[in-house]
Amino acid sequence: MQSFFNDADQEKELKKLTNTVFKIIIEDLESRYPYGSITSNIRKNLRDAVHKLIKIASEQNKLLLQFPAILAYFVYNFLQNIDLDELEHINEKLDDIQRLIERKNLQGLSFNTIKQILQQELQKRKSRSGEQKEQGEKEEGEQREQKPGEESGESNEQEQEGEESEGESGNEESRSGERSGEGEGEESEGGEGEGEQGKQNSERGQGTEGEGQKGAGEGQGAEDVFEDLERKINDEIMVLDLLEDSLQKALSVLSIGKGSGGGILKEVNPRVLELLERANRILTLANQVDLQYANSRGVKDQGGVMRGVTTGNNLKHLFKSQLILPDEIFLERYTNRALLQRAVESEGVGDFYFIIDKSGSMDDEMPNGYTAFENVSAVALASAMEAEKSNRKVFVQYFDESTTEPIDVNNVLELARVKPGGGTDMMVALREFMEYYNNYPGLKDVKQVFIMSDFETGYDKYTLEDFKNFAKSNDLIITCLHVYDGRVPPNMQEIIDEICDEYYKFNDYDASELFSVVYKKV
User: Fold this and answer.
1) Which carries the bigger pLDDT value, residue 81 or residue 138?
2) Residue 70 domain-assigned?
3) What are the start-end ranges of the H helices in 395-445?
4) Cβ–Cβ under 8 Å, residues 65 and 58
5) Do residue 316 and residue 379 come from a single domain?
6) d(CA 504, CA 300)
7) How far is CA 74 from CA 389, 450, 494, in A?
8) Average pLDDT, stretch 17-31?
9) Is residue 409 domain-shared with residue 426, that is, in the same domain?
10) Based on the structure, what is the number of domains in the chain?
């Protein structure tokens, strides 16, 4: 195999990357396991596994060499599924997979493809084993059929010999007594000969029986060998599945939008791995929400000027023929943006802006297993996925006691940098939004603003009044989504009455519920 690491400098870089990733992984494990659990043997096996994983993944996908953080995230994801006591066995399987790739020249193929090749090889061996077994049974049957005939032939020969012996004996009896005595002597010798012949026949019979037992033993041995082989291949397939899942999760970070493949992915440190994990959770949830609405297909066209026919996944402009496709075909084409639709130029529709609460209460877990913060961030991202289909942008501004600057939602890594925590001061967020809107040229096309909060905030009438007048003068629609835990703050009604054009409330919510409101707009 032509390794990408034959060059001494490249091998040196690989070892350096291995050391960095190993350090991060071991620190993570030591923070989660009791003191002393990570033995010297586990550390050695873990380092070997890190080195092999980085090398295998890099040789299968050259792109990963440009983004060490993605490689590290791949290793991190893979090892999350492995028991520390199994590391030595996993290293053996990784060696087997590496040898298979080299032997069959499978460099550059996906782990799924390699798995399919292994499965086909196992199936071929099963077929050959079945054919050999059939042939063996057939030959054994033929031998059984021949055996009675052979025994009958031997019996006839013995009868003929007996008759000849009797004839000779009669002749001998008619001779003289002297000759008769000699005959008795010969008979005695003949008896000894018959004894020797019987002994030889007996030995032949035992030999045949022994050969039969040997053949049966060999057949059993072949079965055991095949079972071992099948178990070995199944183990390799299991590891290939883990490799594929871990790599896809890591690579998904490269496809989360504009700017996501920037300098941060060239860094390898615990902060980056934590960031990628949070980004991936938000991305996964946003994709679930977006696909859920794609699957429902119950969407009305929001108009616009038709400029021709194109392909994509904008449900608002699909041709009706696409809605009757089988589910699996529809979702495949939706994912690949290959559905037939009208090429529409939107009229009078602007960009979208989310003002999202990131106070400490937003770190609470919701029924779907994601935090409140992850749910509202996923709604913003799913909105960006939809808005992008009509060339519109989505921005988000987070707040607690202070506020962030506007973030392009397409850059999920920037969203992932934000952590919930602190108090709630919506007034700061409203004042800063007006400042941003006046000074950021990219926000001039924003026409729809969503405020997502539990509204547990202090307020002042002057800020509310200024914001209301500002929204009216800039033709902004303000939609308020109240996400709460069953309790309505005392000042909330005054805020709603003053600034919200539309108001929706959600208790024990998830991203799909929130998106049901937002989706109508985007």
Assistant:
1) 81
2) yes
3) 412-417, 426-439
4) yes
5) no
6) 21
7) 30, 35, 49
8) 86
9) yes
10) 3
